[in-house]
Design goal:
about 220 residues; protein dimerization activity; RNA polymerase II transcription regulatory region sequence-specific DNA binding; TF_Kbox; MADS-box/MEF2_TF; DNA-binding transcription factor activity; 5 helices
Length: about 220
Amino acid sequence: MVRQRIQIKKIDNVTARQVTFSKRRRGLFKKAHELSTLCDAEIALIVFSATGRLFEYASSSTRQVIERHNLQPQNLVQLNQPSLELQLENSTRAMLSKEAEERTLELRQLRGEELHELGFEELKKLEKSLEGGLSRVLKTKDDRVEKEIAALRRKDARLMEENAWLKQQVQMQIVNMGQPQEQGQSSESITNNGSTVAPPQDYDSSDTSLKLGLPYQS
């Protein structure tokens, strides 16, 4: 009976695929071992399953075989060639460096340096840039001056309010201190007035003797 040849294509059934992978992996590793033993060959096999599981076989050491592979002349040439990412990085770096040089030159020209290589149109463009920058600087300065003036006015108004409040407090203290003194003076004046009342005119303060009988008439 003739053995039917299996068509090489992806197995759709997951279970059948896993069984086939397990059988053929063992067969592959067996063939590699036989080749290494019969021919004294150094072999390394690395296999990842569909689920990401690692399987490997090496006659000596997988790392040694990989290092030996990298030391081959054609592989050394490939390792010395810059990768695509490195080439893009170098290109980006060169572009940024060129842009930085252009910006530095523009700044020098704005300061009035290195103008001998500029043409008439370039000088006019530079003049417009300077005028626009100067107008923005002046506007920013005016805005800042107005803000400072407004702040000074607010500070002056606050100081005037504080000064008026202090004057009011001083006047109130003077009034409060003056009222008790006036009351004391009035009471003292009343006491003095009471003690200095003049006696009647017919009162003779010099004769203090006791007189008996009718007064003597001359």
